[in-house]
C-alpha cells in the first residue's frame, strides 16, 4: 500500500509532536509557572551548568541570598543556609554526578561517597580515620613523627633554595608553583605513607629535588583533575602512582624497613585493604598536593609585593625557638604567631583553593531555605568565594589585607571567622585542616625566616574558574635572596 505525502507528514507530526511539547513544558512552562521554585529569583538570562563564578557573585549582589542559577538549581549565600546544607544533621548528600568525579580504582573513597545523614558508609569511613589529623594528635602523640618529617622535608626545601640563590645562570630565579606543591606533597607522603616515602626511593618521590619528577607528576595530576585532553591516560598514571606508594609501603612494613605512615597504619587497622586503601590514601595525597600549592603561591605573590610586610613576617618567624640540629621551629609557637596566621587566613579567604559551588541535593523530605520550601531532589550549593567576599562582613572584600585579622575588635574578628569557610565547618569540616595548616606554616617559615622574595614574572595570576582553582598561568617566577641572620 502506498503512503502519500500527506499521510506521511501527518504520521511524522504525530510521532514528533511530543518532543517539542515536552521541551516547552520542562524548559518553559513548568519552571516559570508550575515549579515550586518559581517564586525564587531566576538568573537572567538562565545559564547552563556550570554557571561561571563571576555570574554567581553578580546574581547574589542583584537578587539576594537565594537565586536560581538555572530553572532547577539553586545558589545560596547566607550563613544560615550554609549551616543547613552542610552541617545540620550531617548535611545534605552530594549529587551523584559530582562525587563520581572523585572515584579512583573503580571504588568509592570518603570524598566520592554521597555523604549526608543517610550515608552510613560515609560515616563509617570517616570514623575509620580516627583522630590522626586532629590538632590534639598532631601536637601530642603524633608530634615526634611530624617533627621528623618536617626536619627532612624542610632541609631539602632549604637545600634547593640555597642552590637557586647560588646558581649563576638563574640569578636566584625559580617558578614556585610546582615547587610549592612538591614541598607539601613530600610532607603528605611522609605522613600518609611513611618514612620510606612509599618505598619508592629518592628517584620516585623526590619531588623537591627532582624538577623532572615533580613536573611529570603535576602534568598528570593537572590533566586528570581538569579533564583535559589525555585525562583518561593521566588517571591511569595517577592510579599506578598510588598503587606504587601503597604497595611500596606494604613491602617496607613486611620487611621491617618502615612502620608505614600514620594514615596508612590507621586505615589498615580498620581493615581497609587493596584498591580501597589505594583510593583513600591517593585522595588524601592529591588534596595535600593541590590545595596547599595554590595557597602558598598566592601567599608568596602577595607578600612579595609588600617588602615591609615581609620584614614584619621575618621578624616574627625569627622569634621562634628552634631545634639546633634541624632548625625546625617549635610547633606550638609557630601555630600561635598572629601575623603568620593572619597572612595565611587572608590568603585562604581571598584565594580559596575551592572557591566555587559545593554541590548538594536536598533530602527527600525537602528543606526550608531562606523562607522557601525546597522539595527533595533539588540541587543546591553555596560558593565559598561568595561567603568570603560578602561586603557587609569584609571591608573591601576583594583586597588582600591580612591586617584586617589583627584589629583590636573581638566582635568583628568573631564575625569574620564565622564567615570564613575555607575548610567548611562543623561535622563536615575538612578532616585534614589542622595538618594542612601546620604544613603550610612550616613551609612559609622555611622560606621567609631565611629569604626575601621578589616578583620576576606574574602574568595571568587570576584564579581559574573551576573546582580546584589555581592561577590561570600555573606559574609564578620569584627571585630569592638570602637574608642576613
Radius of gyration: 25 Å
The residue fraction in helices comes out at: 40-55%
At CATH level 2, the architecture of the largest domain is Orthogonal Bundle
Highest CATH level, the class of the largest domain: Mainly Alpha
Principal-axes shape call:
globular
Mean pLDDT: 90
Structural class: alpha+beta
Can you write the helix and strand succession as a string? HHHEEHHHHHEHHHHHHHHHEEEEHHHEE
Q: Order of strands side by side in the largest beta sheet?
A: 1-2-7-4
- List unreliable stretches of 5+ residues: 198-203
Summed up, the helix count is: 20
User: Percent of residues in beta strands?
Assistant: 5-15%
Summarize this entry quickly:
The protein is α+β, with helices and mostly antiparallel strands. It has helices at residues 5-16, 18-34, 53-63, 79-86, 96-99, 120-128, 135-138, 143-166, 176-192, 202-205, 211-226, 231-254, 262-269, 274-304, 307-317, 331-335, 338-350, 384-388, 410-418, 433-448; strands spanning 66-70, 73-76, 173-175, 360-361, 367-369, 372-374, 379-382, 451-457, 477-482.
Amino acid at each position: 500500500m502506498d503512503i502519500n505525502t500527506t499521510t506521511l507528514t501527518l504520521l511524522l507530526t504525530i510521532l514528533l509532536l511530543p518532543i517539542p511539547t515536552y521541551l516547552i513544558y520542562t524548559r518553559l512552562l513548568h519552571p516559570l509557572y508550575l515549579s515550586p521554585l518559581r517564586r525564587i529569583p531566576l538568573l537572567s538570562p538562565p545559564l547552563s551548568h556550570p554557571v561561571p563564578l563571576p555570574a554567581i557573585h553578580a546574581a547574589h549582589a542583584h537578587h539576594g541570598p537565594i537565586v536560581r542559577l538555572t530553572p532547577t538549581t539553586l545558589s545560596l549565600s547566607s550563613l544560615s543556609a550554609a549551616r543547613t546544607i552542610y552541617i545540620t544533621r550531617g548535611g545534605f548528600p552530594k549529587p551523584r554526578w559530582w562525587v563520581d568525579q572523585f572515584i579512583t580504582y573503580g571504588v568509592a573513597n570518603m570524598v566520592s561517597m554521597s555523604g549526608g545523614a543517610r550515608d552510613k558508609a560515609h560515616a563509617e569511613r570517616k570514623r575509620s580515620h580516627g583522630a590522626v589529623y586532629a590538632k590534639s594528635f598532631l601536637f601530642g602523640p603524633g608530634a615526634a613523627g611530624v617533627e621528623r618529617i618536617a626536619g627532612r622535608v624542610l632541609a631539602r626545601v632549604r637545600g634547593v633554595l640555597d642552590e637557586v640563590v647560588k646558581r649563576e645562570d638563574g640569578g636566584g630565579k625559580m617558578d614556585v608553583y610546582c615547587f610549592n606543591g612538591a614541598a607539601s606533597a613530600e610532607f603528605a607522603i611522609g605522613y600518609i605513607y611513611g618514612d620510606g616515602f612509599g618505598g619508592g626511593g629518592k628517584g620516585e618521590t623526590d619531588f623537591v629535588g627532582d624538577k623532572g619528577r615533580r613536573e611529570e607528576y603535576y602534568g598528570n595530576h593537572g590533566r586528570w583533575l581538569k579533564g583535559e585532553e589525555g585525562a583518561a591516560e593521566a588517571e591511569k598514571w595517577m592510579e599506578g602512582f598510588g598503587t606504587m606508594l601503597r604497595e611500596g609501603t606494604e613491602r617496607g612494613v613486611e620487611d621491617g624497613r618502615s612502620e608505614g605512615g600514620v594514615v596508612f597504619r590507621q586505615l589498615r587497622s580498620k581493615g581497609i585493604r587493596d584498591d580501597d586503601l589505594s583510593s583513600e590514601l591517593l585522595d588524601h595525597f592529591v588534596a595535600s598536593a593541590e590545595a596547599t600549592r595554590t595557597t602558598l603561591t598566592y601567599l608568596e605573590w602577595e607578600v612579595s609585593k609588600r617588602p615591609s610586610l615581609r620584614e614584619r613576617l621575618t621578624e616574627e618567624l625569627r622569634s621562634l625557638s628552634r631545634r639546633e640540629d634541624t632548625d625546625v621551629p617549635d610547633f606550638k609557637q609557630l601555630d600561635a604567631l598572629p601575623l603568620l596566621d593572619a597572612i595565611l587566613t587572608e590568603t585562604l579567604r581571598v584565594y580559596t583553593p575551592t572557591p566555587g559551588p559545593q554541590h548538594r541535593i536536598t533530602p527527600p523530605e525537602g528543606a526550608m531555605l531562606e523562607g522557601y520550601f525546597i522539595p527533595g531532589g533539588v540541587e543546591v550549593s553555596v560558593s565559598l568565594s561568595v561567603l568570603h567576599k560578602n561586603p557587609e562582613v569584609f571591608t573591601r572584600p576583594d583586597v588582600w589585607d591580612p591586617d584586617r585579622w589583627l584589629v583590636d575588635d573581638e566582635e568583628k574578628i568573631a564575625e569574620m571567622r564565622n564567615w570564613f569557610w575555607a575548610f567548611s565547618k562543623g561535622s563536615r569540616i575538612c578532616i585534614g585542616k589542622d595538618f594542612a595548616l601546620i604544613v603550610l606554616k612550616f613551609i612559609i617559615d622555611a622560606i621567609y625566616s631565611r629569604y626575601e622574595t621578589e616578583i620576576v614574572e606574574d602574568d595571568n595570576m587570576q584564579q581559574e574558574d573551576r573546582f580546584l582553582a589555581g592561577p590561570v598561568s600555573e606559574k609564578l617566577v620569584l627571585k630569592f635572596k638570602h637574608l642576613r641572620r
